[in-house]
Amino acid sequence: MSARIRWALIAALALATPAFAQESQPAGGAGADTPVDTSRDRITVGVGVGTTPRYSGASRSMTIPVVAVQGQISGISFATQGTSVFADVIPGSGKPGWKLQFGPEVALRLDRNTSPGDAAVARLGKIGRAWEAGGWVGVQRTGVVTSPYDTLSLSASWQKDLSGVHGSAIFTPSIDYDTPLSRRAYVSLSLSADHVGRGFGDTYFDITPAGSAASGLAAYDGADHPGWKDWNASGLIAHSLTGDLTHGLGLFATAGYSRLLGDYARSPVVRERGQASAALGVEFTF
């Protein structure tokens, strides 16, 4: 599973507030006659618990604490997604229509840096922490299907390893659909795929003869090339308990599925080609 999508799942509540707050007035629900102030500065903090695979291709999952922060200051939106931080530096008008999205992104990749939960894979040794930096660009349409307030977004991100751990780039196109059902309820769906460079496959999926001797796994060099590593799907449901989705206390639940592809899925370190993640928690917007 891509680190971007895995952590986006766990921190997906951070994306609910800006998608709702860009609308000038949500359809239906209590207080629908009162416009929403989309220009005010705001911050959302979410905490909870999540479950995610121990590494890309693992058969075992781990339970982790969830912390996410999202905000808007002077029209510039920003958010954390687990070990990733990104921003949209192009302010929106808050009105139905098209909006360009663009900004920087920095991430810390921890795949195979902690216990893999598999004795043979553990004997291959830990992989260092990879610092990745790059950016993303997209286009968003507000007012699509259900109301003038739902959004459809097409975007793509590109990040390069700056730490020398895998030394390659990750390209991720995605499509997202978000809709506020009322002032207090929100649903989001997302599809994406990851294209990785040669060094990525060599680092995380290939096994050298020395690694084979140490682990008992077969030697493998089939992932030593650029290619599409996986596809990912995720969903989010958020519900406000006090106030509405732009302020107050709320609950969120996320679920997602990722599936490895081709030569990456055939690596001996892969125990499960398809992997699931989920999270539950509370968030507060002020």
TrEMBL record:
Signal sequence region: 1-21
Superkingdom, taxonomy of origin: Bacteria
Keyword set includes Transport: no
Record keywords: Cell outer membrane, Membrane, Signal
Primary localization class, coarse: membrane
Subcellular location: Cell outer membrane
Membrane-spanning intervals of the chain: none
InterPro entries: MipA (IPR010583)
Family: Belongs to the MipA/OmpV family.
PANTHER family: MLTA-INTERACTING PROTEIN-RELATED
UniProt protein name: MipA/OmpV family protein
